[in-house]
Amino acid sequence: MSTVGMSVTLGTTTSAVAIDDVSVRFQSKRTEVTAIGQVSLDVAPGEFVSIVGPSGCGKSTLLKLVSGLLKPSSGSVTLLGEEVRGPRHDIGFVFQRAALLEWRSARKNILLQAEMRGMNAAEAGKRADELIEMTGLAGFENALPHELSGGMQQRVALCRALLHQPRVLLMDEPFGALDALTREQMNVELHRVWRETGTTVLLVTHSIAESVYLANRVIVLTQRPAVVKEVIEVDLPAERDYSATMARAEFAAATAHIRDLLGAVTGHD
Amino acid sequence: MKPVSGDRWRGVVERTWRPAALLATCLAIWHLITVSGLVEAYLVPSPSKTFQLLVDKWSYLWGHTWVTTYETILGFVIAGILGVLVAVAMVYSRTIESTAYPLLLFAQVIPKIAIAPLFVVWLGFGFEPKVVVAVLMAFFPVVISTVTGLKSVDTEMLELSATMGGGPIKTFVKIRFPAALPHLFAGLKVAVTLAVTGAVVGEFVGSNEGLGYVILQANGNMDTPMLFAGLIVISVVGILLFLLLDLAEQLMLPWHSSRRGAAVTTLLAKGGT
């Protein structure tokens, strides 16, 4: 179905991310809460997968499983061919809040990634400058976080997550705190960055339009305990102009379908 | 973006005229009380007499001021280092936290003036017991503020750090400790004023030098001008040490200070409570 060339030819290689029959249960005082029921998901290298679902259904939990920040109660997660057993260092992570160190300039916040990893300083600096250029941060390198707008802060967080050229990028509602217009701009930029870097992306979002515009596939989760309700293949060209994409019939159909699914699942109880 | 010097001075004037006016008013009231004859002159000396004494007896006072300042700074530095170390241990180990907290609280609530004689018995009449009392006074706010600071770090920031693979030491040095500095400085500023009190209390109990000794001597001689002079010098020492820390904070944490307003403002906010 997909017209995106990338993911079609990758069937034979190993998945970038393989979530296999995973469930997560939290033990609270008296009751046991199942956050995630049985979830399985394969993400091909270079693929962009969006995850949508009702609030509090465990979308973010899914990303924490992939990054190894959380252990599944059952099942297994495999990242880049290696089972996840603890925090993984071969990923990039972007949170809803930029989580920047307020005493460091934009550039130094990006370079934190390099310092923590002990990367070669000269190479990291060069890479940081490239990313600053790519994300339109040029001219703001030396600004402190509180001098930057929300969109700019999130660009810094994105650069930091991409500095070490991770093969998998995890994004947890990265644009949720931005205004609508900034959000659209960030969508366009993320799309371009993804096309340029070829990184595998898992994006958790509340915005249906965002999920469809950016992704090869959209995973719709049910309410807690979350299971995969449906997987939607996004039938859009690889090169996506924002306005033109919004106007396409396929886009309208996909968003309407997802909205129906979410309405259906939230209407259950 | 440097302000022109005229603007800069206007800023200084704007920030300082209110406290200066308040201080002048207090001095005026003090003066009026002494000239009105409501209070006997030997009970409350006039401001002019007190300041005259400060000038006349400066060399005598200076020697004692230096002793008290030395004890204060030594006590403050020891309390600062110990406080941060204990706070770090408590934040990183639940066991240490739950074990040490009751003892810490006990050390805090016990009246320092009541145990000061014990230190004189143990350590003699030198500077050591004064430093110990200063440490005991200053220690607690440092621990509490550092613990709060170290715990105030975003969990997201720590999770991010885990995915960056920096390990606990790098995470502490590059993320946790710098993030705790604003809290730590707040604690240090309270601590330094308490260290002054601690040193003076230590001197009260047994000494032959320092501003506490000066005040006790003046008290014995019914020398109220000297008593007042001693109080003023103690206050000035405390205020100067506080301002020094405020300056250090501004230099070390410009990212924080710029969002928080000027030094004099915080001095008033803290001094007012």
TrEMBL record, chain A:
Keywords: ATP-binding, Nucleotide-binding, Transport. Pfam families: ABC_tran. InterPro entries: AAA+_ATPase, ABC_transporter-like_ATP-bd, ABC_transporter-like_CS, ABC_transporter_ATP-bind, P-loop_NTPase. CDD domains: ABC_NrtD_SsuB_transporters. Residues 17-248 form the ABC transporter domain. PROSITE patterns: ABC_TRANSPORTER_1, ABC_TRANSPORTER_2. The keyword Transport applies. GO terms for molecular function: ATP binding; ATP hydrolysis activity. Coiled coil: none annotated. This is ABC transporter ATP-binding protein.
